[in-house]
Amino acid sequence: MKLFLDTADVNFIRSTYSMINADGVITNPSLISRSQSKYGSAVLDLKVIGRFIDEHGGRLHVQTVGRSYEDIMKDASFISEEFGSRTVVRIPVSREGLAAMSSLSSAGVEVAGTAVYTFSQALLAVKAGAGQLTVYAGRMEENGLDYQALVRLLKKAVPDVFVLVASIHSHETAERAAEAGADGLAYKPELLFSEVGSLLVSRTMDGFAESWKNAYEIGKFEKI
């Protein structure tokens, strides 16, 4: 199971990598617009993130913004040139997006089909050359769609395609995605560490500390 950070916040990415070895970062225009730019522009932020992720052996996923085939191709060219060779170009699965995926994958560009809500969408993206698919679990739930069923079907029908589940609104959503067979999960900053400092964890740590102190009359390790 791979773990991605669903954010464009440079500070959060750096602080997270100081604690855990994540597998990369996924971004989209909405995330970028909400993040507070550290270096003055989204492009500079993404360059910094790209270099940082590359140094740690991860992947940066950057989504195109254009709606027409020509604009998607321009965006993809810019993304590939500016953000490093390990960058994955994310393209929404529309008619124009499928045409762009086909051209880009034929040219050796790594492409991920995103905003995937149905099996037919996913199948078309795979046939257009997408090696990865991004399923938006939260948005599917909000619209009465079963993301678990979609992930299961994808892993059965196209097992070699990497299925990443994003738009995760709760730990239960993440767990259900993992149960369905997702290859990777993309966590938002507000969710990723929310259970690490839970009351149950705190109580457990207090209990360990008290047991140690009762047994050895000190609350820490000391040389003897």
Task: Kindly list the characteristics that best describe this protein.
alpha/beta, single chain, about 220 residues, about 15% strand, 11 helices, about 50% helix, 8 strands, globular
In short:
With 224 residues, this protein is an alpha/beta fold. It has eleven helices and eight strands.
Provide the residue-averaged pLDDT. Answer: 90
| Helical content band | 40-55%
By DSSP (H or I, 4+ residues per run), the number of helices equals 11
Main sheet record: 8 strands, parallel, barrel
Class by helix and strand content? alpha/beta
Uncertain residue ranges: none
Helix and strand element order: EHEHHEHEHEHEHHEHEHH
Instruction: Give the strand order of the largest sheet, numbering strands 1, 2, ... along the chain.
Output: 1-2-3-4-5-6-7-8
Distance between the termini: 43 Å
Rounded to an integer in angstroms, the radius of gyration calculated over CA atoms is 20 Å
Shape: globular
Beta-strand residue percentage: 15-25%
Work out the number of β strands.
8
